[in-house]
């Protein structure tokens, strides 16, 4: 038997592919536990917020609303279970109306991320947070993303990408480009947004889960074991991390 899952019968940018991805996430216990862990990062970093709206950008195939009841879900495509449809580059929210904005593997798909950051700067309250989990640019991640992943990964790229579609358009290195390589430019362009955290993590478990295209490579009961193993690798996360958590605060 092959390792690959049945491919989506739809094109990559078809909204039905996103719903198909949701079915995969919910049907694979190892992968779903990883999403639960990532969502818990959002919860932990906003636990002190007692009021104000929270918004998820690019909710797509996720299930954040089950973890944070009341969060406003959104996507650029009209999808079942999504509250609002709009582009991240033009958020239909009032100035200083949001306590938090969440994205999970979305920032690197936005054609003009600077426009999104302008909107985050505008819509976040003082003390509000933009929290993202995105692909990392590390020694290990470059090997994986450049050779075994369908999305482009170009650390030499610019601040914008071609707008080919909500999933096909991408540069997995965009978070690193904005917040590491060009940090001084980011700070100059967005003086009200302060980078609080840029933390590498999760070198193995997404791969072991099989992600959205492969069958799981390990049994579901091994999740805790590999989480512990990754903790042992944490001093080398800058070398082996495949993902990065970015926390930005409106000051």
* Termini Cα gap: 54 Å
The CATH topology, please? Answer: Rossmann fold
> How much of the residues is beta strand, in percent?
15-25%
Structural class: alpha/beta
Helix share, percent: 25-40%
CATH superfamily, by name, is Vaccinia Virus protein VP39
Description:
- It contains 10 helices and 7 strands.
- By secondary structure, the chain is an alpha/beta fold.
- It has a single domain, classed as 3-Layer(aba) Sandwich (Rossmann fold), CATH 3.40.50.150.
- It has a 7-stranded mixed sheet, sandwiched between helices.
- Helix 4 (113-123) links the parallel strand 4 and strand 5.
- The N and C termini lie far apart (54 Å).
- The model has no long low-confidence stretch (mean pLDDT 95).
What's this model, at a glance?
By secondary structure, this protein is α/β, with parallel strands linked by helices.
Features:
19% strand; 251 residues; seven-stranded mixed β-sheet; Rossmann fold; 7 strands; alpha/beta; 36% helix
Helix and strand arrangement:
Layout: H1 15-27, H2 29-45, E1 53-57, H3 64-67, E2 72-75, E3 84-85, E4 98-104, H4 113-123, E5 124-135, H5 139-148, H6 174-181, H7 183-189, E6 193-201, H8 205-209, H9 223-233, H10 237-240, E7 243-250
Parallel strand pairs: 1-2, 1-4, 2-3, 4-5
Antiparallel strand pairs: 5-7, 6-7
Helix pairs in contact: 6-7
């Amino acid at each position: 038997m092959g390792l690959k899952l049945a491919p989506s019968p739809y094109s990559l940018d078809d909204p039905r592919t996103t719903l198909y991805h949701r079915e995969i996430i919910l049907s694979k216990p190892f992968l779903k536990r990883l999403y639960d862990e990532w969502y818990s990062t959002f919860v932990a970093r906003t636990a002190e917020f007692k009021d104000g709206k929270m918004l998820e950008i690019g909710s797509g195939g996720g299930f954040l609303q089950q973890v944070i009841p009341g969060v406003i879900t959104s996507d650029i495509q009209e999808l079942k279970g999504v509250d609002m449809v709009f582009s991240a580059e033009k958020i239909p929210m009032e100035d200083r109306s949001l306590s938090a904005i969440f994205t999970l593997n979305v920032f690197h798909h936005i054609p003009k991320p600077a426009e999104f950051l302008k909107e985050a700067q505008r819509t976040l309250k003082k003390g509000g947070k933009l929290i993202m989990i995105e692909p990392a640019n590390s020694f290990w991640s470059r090997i994986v993303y450049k050779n075994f992943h369908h999305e482009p990964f170009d650390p030499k790229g610019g601040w914008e990408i071609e707008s080919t579609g909500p999933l096909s358009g991408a540069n997995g290195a965009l978070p690193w480009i904005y917040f590491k390589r060009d940090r001084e430019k980011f700070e100059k362009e967005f003086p009200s947004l302060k980078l609080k955290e840029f933390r590498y993590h999760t070198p193995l478990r997404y791969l072991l889960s099989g992600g959205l295209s492969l069958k799981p490579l390990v049994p579901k009961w091994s999740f805790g074991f590999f989480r512990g193993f990754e903790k042992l690798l944490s001093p080398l996360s800058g070398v082996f991390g495949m993902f990065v958590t970015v926390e930005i605060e409106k000051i």
